[in-house]
Amino acid sequence: MTSRKEWTTKLQSNKIERTFEHHLYAKRTLREIKILRLLHHENVINIKTIISPKSLKDFNEIYVVLELMETDLGSIIKSDQELSLDHIKFFMYQLLRGIKYIHSAGILHRDLKPRNLLVDSNCDLKICDFGLSRADIPELYEAGSMTDYVSTRWYRAPELLLGSEDYTKSVDMWAVGCIFSELLTRRPFLPGSDSENQLKMIINMIGVPDKETVKIC
Q1: Looking at 72, 111, 120, 129, which residue is catalytic?
Q2: Where does the Protein kinase domain start and stop, copy by copy (predicted)?
Q3: What is the CA radius of gyration of the chain?
Q4: Between residues 215 and 211, which one has the greater pLDDT?
């Protein structure tokens, strides 16, 4: 097993393809890079540098150099590797610690899921993939509101499924709860087949929301 000192000196490059194929891809790439350069925390992936092309003519893709992590939480959950309660507590502690820091910076991740939680050989966890993240600041919303089509379906909060454009950090906390359940059971908590089925599964679990709640959404 690689020691902590040796491991933290290793890097990996993340190739971002089709960056300029569509303006939305370019915006997501720029957003992720800007956010990663802003955030500095033990439980958030650390961007080291960006490898630029030799010329503008070759500027079709971007290489982002990150600290090296062995695997992700999704792969661990699907594996035969034993997950003790101590493992689960440690992973959840780090996830909550990281998301608290992200939220304190006024940022919503909006795509928390096991695959976006990187893990190294010491069980250190780091949150990654900020391509769908947004600043929780009204002045920075596009067209006065935030888009609702964010987050992978199984981890999507009910207000997003109901089409809310005025949501808060609670959408991330819903995803955290789904991840916690998945760690305990080794299977997705609410594996809906589509958005309608996902909402039905949520209602079957927590009951029908009252009219005021639906009105707010």
Answers
A1: 111
A2: 1-217
A3: 18
A4: 211
Residue 109 structure tokens? 């991740």
- Asked whether the beta carbons of 33 and 12 are under 8 A apart, the reply is no
Measure the CA–CA gap between 130 and 64, rounded to whole angstroms. Answer: 13
Burial of 215 (0-12, 13-18, 19+ CB in 10 A): exposed
CB-based burial of residue 4 (10 Å sphere; 0-12 exposed, 13-18 middle, 19+ buried)? Answer: exposed
Start-to-end C-alpha separation, the chain? 49
Pairwise CA distance, residues 115 & 190, whole Å: 16
Count of beta carbons in the 10 Å neighbourhood of residue 28: 17
**Unique residue bearing structure tokens 């190294």:** 120
CB 45 within 8 A of CB 36: yes
Say what the pTM is.
0.81
* CA nearest to 102, candidates 71, 67, 126, 68: 126
**Residues 56-81: tens digit of each pLDDT:** 777 777 788 888 899 999 999 999 99
| Token pair for 37 | 């350069």
Q: Going edge to edge, which strands form the sheet with 47-51?
A: 11-16, 62-67, 47-51
CATH class of 4-216: mainly alpha
- Assess contact for 167 and 146: CB atoms under 8 A: yes
Distance CA 188, CA 191 (A): 6
| Contacts (Cβ under 8 Å, ≥6 apart) of 129 | 32, 111, 115, 116
